[in-house]
């Protein structure tokens, strides 16, 4: 029964992953804790291991055909993710679990509120230049740094890193929301979380059978999620993503703080 539940839940996570380009870990880790009774480090390990295989490849193909993926930038971010994953994994297994959960909740809440424009009320607005909304080329090292930061976050919190990548691609690199989700999802298809998974496994926090079942579900779900993501208008896409982040952030705050 547990196995069937994990497989079904993997499908749900895959759909969300395909729509938002976030790798699925943002909803996977809290749910493994609450629904399946795992502690945070076991949940992190299972989440990262489930996403080692290219579980979102069908979604990436859909986005690529629709012209939303920047391949070169995705590859550089993938390299950064791999590098940062080692640091994040080491930090996670050597930090207090309650503190880890509180940090996670705080970061999610900040990202969700920033997507709703809450912090813009405290920042003096300047007159917007229409050219600033155009997706312009940025130095490759910037994408590498984004990947490293996302990799550290992923290793710490069991996420695929997309929760960091997507907002940055939109706010700093001026990507269209769907383009950001697609490029992020592409960067996450390589085994960028392997260093963290090895660290968690050596610390006794990994169940490969559970991770395998979730991976199968995510593989199927990501395909359907990407189909929905391609069809959603960009404005609606960003609003839905904002609501999704806020719900998860509020849940984590209420549970751990």
Please state the structural category: mainly alpha
Low-confidence stretches: 125-134
The chain-level mean pLDDT equals 80
Largest sheet: none
* Proportion of beta-strand residues: under 5%
Give the overall shape. globular
- The percentage helix is over 70%
Q: What is the count of structural domains?
A: 1
Distance between the termini: 32 Å
Helix and strand run:
HHHHHHHHHHHH
Rg over CA atoms = 17 Å
> Would you report the number of β strands?
0
Number of helices: 12
Write a short abstract of this structure:
The protein is an all-alpha fold and 257 residues long. Helices cover 72% and strands 0% of the residues.
Question: Top keywords for this entry?
Answer:
12 helices; mainly alpha
């Amino acid at each position: 029964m547990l196995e069937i539940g994990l497989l079904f839940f993997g499908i749900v996570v895959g759909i969300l992953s395909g729509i938002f380009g976030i790798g699925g870990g943002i909803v996977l880790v809290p749910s493994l804790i609450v629904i399946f009774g795992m502690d945070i480090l076991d949940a992190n390990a299972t989440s990262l291991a489930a996403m080692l295989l290219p579980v979102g490849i069908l979604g990436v193909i859909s986005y690529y055909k629709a012209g939303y993926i920047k391949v070169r930038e995705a590859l550089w971010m993938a390299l950064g993710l791999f590098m940062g994953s080692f640091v994040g994994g080491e930090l996670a297994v050597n930090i207090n679990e309650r503190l880890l959960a509180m940090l996670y909740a705080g970061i999610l809440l900040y990202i969700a509120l920033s997507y709703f424009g809450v912090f813009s009320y405290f920042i003096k607005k300047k007159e917007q230049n229409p050219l600033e909304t155009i997706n312009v080329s940025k130095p490759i090292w910037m994408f590498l740094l984004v990947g490293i930061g996302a990799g550290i976050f992923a290793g710490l919190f069991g996420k695929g890193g997309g929760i960091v990548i997507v907002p940055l691609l939109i706010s700093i690199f001026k990507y269209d929301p769907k383009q950001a989700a697609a490029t992020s999802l592409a960067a996450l298809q390589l085994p960028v979380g392997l260093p963290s998974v090895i660290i968690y496994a050596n610390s006794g926090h990994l169940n490969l059978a559970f991770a395998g079942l979730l991976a199968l579900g995510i593989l199927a779900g990501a395909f359907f999620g990407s189909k929905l993501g391609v069809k959603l208008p960009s404005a609606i896409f960003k609003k839905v993503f904002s609501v999704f982040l806020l719900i998860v952030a509020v849940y984590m705050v209420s549970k751990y703080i």
